[in-house]
Amino acid sequence: MKQEYTITVYTENQIGLLNRIAIIFSRRKINIESLNTSPSEVESVHRFTIVINETEDVVRKLCRQIEKQVEVLKAYYNTQEEIVWQELALYKVPTDIIAAEVKVERLLREHGAKAVVIRKDYTVFEVAGHREETDNLIKVLEPYGLIEFVRSGRVAIIKSSDGFHEKLKEFEYREPGEDAIENEFLNENEKVFSM
Amino acid sequence: MQTLELKKETTTATPATTTQISGSEAVLKALLAEKVDTIFGYPGGAIMPIYDALYDYNDRLNHILVRHEQGAIHAAQGFARVSGRVGVVFATSGPGATNLVTGLADAMIDSTPVVCVTGQVFAHLLGTDAFQETDVINITTPVTKWNYQVTDANEIPAVLAKAFYIARSGRPGPVVIDITKNAQLQLFDYAGYEKCEHIRSYRPKPIVRKEYVEEAARLINNAERPFVIFGQGVILGKAEKEFKKFIEKSGIPAAWTIMGMSALPTDHPLGVGMLGMHGNYGPNLLTNECDVLIAIGMRFDDRVTGRLDKYAKQAKVIHLDIDPAEIDKNVKSTVPVWGDCKETLPLLTELIEQKVYPQWLQRFRDCQQREEDKVIKEELNPTSDVMTMGEVIRELNELTNGDAIIVTDVGQHQMVACRYAQMNGTRSNVTSGGLGTMGFALPAAIGAAYGDPSRHTVAIIGDGGFQMTLQELGTIMQFKPKVKIMILNNQFLGMVRQWQQLFHQNRYSFVNITSPDFVQVAKGFGIAGKSINQRADLKQALKEMLEHDESFLLEVMVGKENNVFPMVPQGRGVAEIVLCREEV
Ligand SMILES: Cc1ncc(C[n+]2csc(CCOP(=O)(O)OP(=O)(O)O)c2C)c(N)n1
Ligand SMILES: [Mg+2]
After folding, report:
1. Which ipTM did the prediction report?
2. I want to staple B493 with a disulfide (CB 3.0 to 4.6 A). Which of B279, B402, B500, B511 is the partner?
3. Is the pTM of this model over 0.90?
């Protein structure tokens, strides 16, 4: 069954790596729903957050192909329930309408929107949250002359992760410990060897 | 003037431990440090500084000037495949680099270690559509294991060290290093060359986990009809000895993929033939009857598996591979044994019981007999007057005793050569397996001749494929590698013709290809040649070809519309293999 997966990739910070990762998806005609690149908790290690809709089998294979890239340290995939995630949206609306309609201000407050810029001609609000939340506010603001809308890529924290500091040490050893290469087969011993 | 220069030299030489050299010279020093002795290349504007430096290294580095950059990379592939070393290519920017792409794709899919150094325009011109500028890094990204653009000479030693390490380690593959002209010209403080042995984000081989090996051994020990299928991983892992020991102790029949061919001598008693679309009958059919399938260093290509949902469904699958991305990619494994088979095979051999499977082996022998009767007899000893490709290979076997390097192009002749060629030693089979690149054989054979001059290199090529890269006859003319070129001329793009006949109702659409007088063409390049169309001349002609003390071109006119059988038609399961046209 296809569902939304969030892929977290720890990498070296290298020019061209974004392309190497992107073509793993485009070659297989898989649409990237959202993509974010950022630093990670570890200095010098970069973090990609990629959202796609696929079956688990496909996502697992994609992660193996990603990890195969020389400059990729590790790729994880998680379902929505396994992560804490946010996306940031910005909304630009005419200031005069907001000033005139009290209702609008209430609606914005209800959606957790925060004004980031207030000018005579327009105001920019920001909302951080899940996709449905930021989507909803578009509908709410449309009647009041939404001028511009933009949403960021997803950022996600893996609930069960201990971060990458310890992992990186494993990678830096010349002879890696067992942790550096996780093995879902072995970790799910039973499932694997039952025939 | 003179004194001034002298002074300068002495002042810089005394205090520093580093010396100033150019980026170009650093490239050549890197090659020497990596024990490279042969380069296949072609110069041009953006790589001129490297060629200028090469002028002074000519005594230590043998540069072979090819006639097309595709020829350079195929030659480097041939070199790598027979020698187990990294092949090296030089090409200029723009068209020089784009001409490499086919070879890169070929090396990528067949896991061949190659390092290509391409020249690039000056760094300040990048992105300006400068003369002969192409975005080489982005063009080559999908077809390289790694690529990198150097814009500063200081990076060169470390980047080349990385390039060689990545190309040869783990699952090998091609690497492109694109060096801007300014970096080639730039003088920098050279502190020597240090080989690369570790990159923190790169795990060339997964750690071997004993649990798997134990589980695999348990499955093997309990099996009644185990079957080994092996690929190039055995050769790339330099694990031929370990593999043979495993096979001989386990007593398990073993079949090879086209890329795995020659990892085990073709006449080994437990070798049961080739897998795949035009492989042998038994190995294909019995894939669907074994109870444990042990796949070693192979990747379940669709040409091997046929229809996946009809592939070995009854079997428990043990998959040994160095590349974790191959595990479960096409065929779900019961026990995945990740790791370098040079390490995993001995562990497995240790744990398995010494066994024989006489009845099971007999099944393969029976299948073989059936194939002999229906296909092989007539192919190798035809009753008609027209020569077959198979009989040419049979005669060749008798003369070379299976000790030659066989380089094949792509098409019917490739399938026939791989089906019937005898190979005693490893690294004897050089063919474009994954990409199926017509035009591969001639340049690859040139590279093979440099990679292992101790053996005969015989290039077996179709009349079509030869016309794709025949310009490399010029390379042979100039540098004199000893290549025996055998054109099996059926006056058709035979493999495509076969498909049109079998699956497109005889509608021969543009497969009728005319050829020049190949012997005259060779003569124009100063290469001796001969063409024969009579069986009576075959043996003598082959002898003449092999005994000639330089390269030689032999054209053999063979049946125009012969087909290669058996065949697993596309979209069918391996057990639906057919032995003749009537069964298709
Ligand atoms: C570069 C390239 N173009 C097209 C093909 C498709 N193709 C595969 S086999 C073949 C026919 C080869 O003809 P020939 O070289 O005469 O060999 P034969 O099959 O007759 O032995 C063709 C066109 C290919 N494999 N490679
Ligand atoms: Mg032909």
Report:
1. 0.92
2. B511
3. yes
